[in-house]
Amino acid sequence: MSIRTLDDLLAEGVSGRRVLVRADLNVPLDKQTGAITDDGRIRAVLPTLGALTEAGAKVVVCSHLGRPKGTPDPQFSLSPVAGRLGELLGAPVHFATDTVGESAESTVAALADGEVALLENLRFNKGETSKDDAERGAFADQLAAFGDAYVDDAFGAVHRKHASVYDVPARLPHVAGRLVLREVEVLSTLTGDPERPYVVVLGGSKVSDKLAVIEALLPTVDRLLIGGGMCFTFLKAQGHEIGTSLLEEEMIETCRNLLERSEGKILLPVDVVAADAFAPDAAHDVVPANGIPSHRVGLDIGPETVAGFAAALRGSVADGTANARTIFWNGPMGVFEMPAFANGTRGVAEAIAESDAFSVVGGGDSAAAVRALGLDEKSFGHISTGGGASLEYLEGKTLPGIAALEN
What we know:
It is a single chain. By secondary structure, the protein is of the alpha/beta class. It has 2 domains: about 5-180, Rossmann fold; about 190-395, Phosphoglycerate kinase, N-terminal domain (Rossmann fold). It is built from 17 helices and 15 strands. It has helices at about 5-10, 40-45, 45-55, 80-90, 100-110, 125-130, 135-145, 165, 180-190, 205-215, 230-235, 250-260, 305-315, 345-355, 365-370, 385-395, 400-405; strands at about 20-25, 60, 95, 115-120, 150-155, 175, 200, 225, 265, 270-275, 285-290, 295-300, 325-330, 360, 380-385. The chain has a 6-stranded parallel beta sheet, with helices on both faces. It has a 6-stranded parallel beta sheet with strand order 9-8-7-13-14-15, with helices on both faces. A 3-stranded antiparallel beta sheet has the order 11-10-12. Helix 11 crosses helix 12 (about 250-260). The longest helix has 14 residues, at about 180-190. The protein is elongated, with a radius of gyration of 23 Å. It holds the Pfam family PGK. It catalyses: (2R)-3-phosphoglycerate + ATP = (2R)-3-phospho-glyceroyl phosphate + ADP. Pathway: Carbohydrate degradation; glycolysis; pyruvate from D-glyceraldehyde 3-phosphate: step 2/5. Keywords: ATP-binding, Cytoplasm, Glycolysis, Kinase, Nucleotide-binding, Transferase.
C-alpha cells in the first residue's frame, strides 16, 4: 500500500494554500443541553490541524455529525464543535452555517494564512451519502472547490463510500493525515504478525455485528474473550438458560459452530450480573452464567469472569498461559453507562491497561468507556477513533477511504 502523507504535503509547502481536511468530529452531545460530552475525536485531529496552521495553510475542515436525513437539522449542527475546536487550537475557528453555499464560500474566501474554518454538517446535503455516483460526484465537485489539496484525517469514516471520503480525493492532490496514518500502521500490525500471545476481547450487544471479525480472527488469535450482550447467544448455544437476556435466535447455530471450531480458544462468562429490569436502579445480583433466572436479564459479566478474563490477559501460572503480548479490545462487557453494571467493563479495561501487552482499543463504545470510566488513556497502546472502520480493517475488507488515498 502506497499512501502519500501529511509530511509529504508539508514538504511541498502549504503556506497560503487552501487545504481541505476531512475530519471525524462526530462527537456525542447531551440531548438536553447540546453540550459536547466527549471531545476525544476533536482532540485526535489536533496534530494534523496544528501542523497545517503552523505551516501557514488556510485550513478548511469538514465533517459529519449524527445521522441527519440529507437536510439541515439544528440538533446535528457542528456549531458547538467549532467553539470547542477553537478552544483546543487556541485560536478562533470560523464557522460556515452551510456546507457548500454562500456562507461556506464567503467564510473560506476570507481565511487568512494559518486560520481555520469549519463547514456545517456534511450530511445536511443528500450528495454526501448518496448511492448515486453522479449525485455524490456533483457534491464532491463543490467541496473540492474549497481546496488546493485534500487531507483525510477521518479514520472513523474511511469505511464509508461518501463524497467527502471517496470522491473528493479523486479531484485534488490527496494525503493521509497524522491520525489516519497512525490508525493504519497500528491495525496493520494486528493483521500481519502480531507478537504472541495475541488475545482479543469482544463485547457489545450483537453477535451478528461481530460475526465477520470473529471469523477473520479465530484462526489467528490465541484466545478470544467474549462478553457483553453478545455472550448470551453463545451461552444459549451451549444449552444454558439465559432468562430475558439479549438473544439472537438466528445466530444460535452459528455460535455453536464457532465454539466447536475454536479449539478451546473462546472463553465465555462463568457468572453474570442479572437484574429484574433494564434500568439503572433495578434489583440485581451475581448468578452463574448457566443459571440465569427466567425473569432476569443479564447486564454485565460477573466478578469471577472478570478474574478469569484478567488471568487470560495477564497470564496464569495455574494453567501455564503466558502474559498476552498483543491485545485488541472492541465492545463493552456490560451496560457500562449504568454504574451498577459497569464493573465488568472497568475490570477488563484495567486488566488490559495493567498488562505488558501492546493494547489496541477498537474505537466506538470501548473508547467511550475508557473516558467515561476515568481510565488513563496513556495506559493503552492505541485508542482507535473508528469502531466500525477498525473492525472492517481487521476483517480484511477494502475501505473506500483508504483505497481513495492509495497512489
